Amino acid sequence: MTEIHPDDLILVAVMTDPRDLEIARVLGWYRIPVAFAPKTLRVDWIAFYLTSAFGDEKWSIRYLARVKGHELVRRRELLRDEPDHLRANEPYFKVQLGPLVQLTKPIPSRRWRRFTFLYTTGERLVRAHEIRDLRVPPSRTRDLLLRERGTKA
Fold first, then answer.
1. C-alpha–C-alpha distance, residues 124 and 119, integer Å
2. How far apart, in whole angstroms, are the C-alpha atoms of residue 81 and residue 88?
3. Hey, how many other C-beta atoms are within 10 angstroms of the C-beta on 65?
4. Which one is predicted more confidently, 21 or 89?
5. How many CB atoms lie within 10 A of CB 37?
6. By C-alpha distance, which of 83, 82, 72 is closest to 37?
7. Cα separation of 16 and 117, whole Å?
8. Is the pLDDT of residue 23 over 50?
């Protein structure tokens, strides 16, 4: 597994459809609607929190990928087989990914949690026994985001 450094900034994103995991694995990208995007996509890694659509893997983080960059595109450019989708013309971030990596130890949620994105660090991800262990204090999250944007905290 590619080494995760303690200070790496990791975006945890909710993945609701097994098709999206296959796209990440085979095509090397993940989509995020601009209207719901997190504060920054300038992160080192993206980890995927799997919902109930993933059966036995539900409510856990099992996969992550190094983020190589991102670009702005229309949904119809990403999913060409859905030209008539209601959001076909809406802007999305296409996050380019390195190879999908499976965690040696999944990070479960002891109970159902509702969130879209959260930021954590490499240190917290490696040490986590449960999703709540990923939480970074708000002041530390602010410092990490400012660092990624090239601003002093």
1. 10
2. 10
3. 22
4. 21
5. 16
6. 72
7. 13
8. yes
Please enumerate in sequence order all residues whose Cβ is within 8 A of that of 152, keeping only pairs 6 or more positions apart, or say none. Answer: 146
Strands 45-50 and 9-15: parallel
Residue boundaries of the structural domains of the chain: 9-148
SS3 100: coil
In tens, the pLDDT along 131-153 reads: 999 988 776 666 666 666 555 44
Please tell us whether the domain made up of 9-148 is placed in CATH 2.30.130.30. yes
pTM of the model: 0.87
CA distance 97 to 122: 17
Per the structure block, which two tokens stand in for 138?
């708000």
Segment 29-78, tens digit of pLDDT: 999 999 999 988 999 999 999 999 999 999 999 999 999 999 999 988 88
The two tokens of residue 76 are 């119809």
- Please state, in angstroms and rounded to a whole number, the distance separating the CA atoms of residues 10 and 19: 22
Judged on CB neighbours under 10 Å (0-12, 13-18, 19+), 134 is buried
Give the Cα separation of 130 and 133 in Å (integer).
Answer: 6
For the segment 112-116, the average pLDDT, to the nearest whole number, is 70
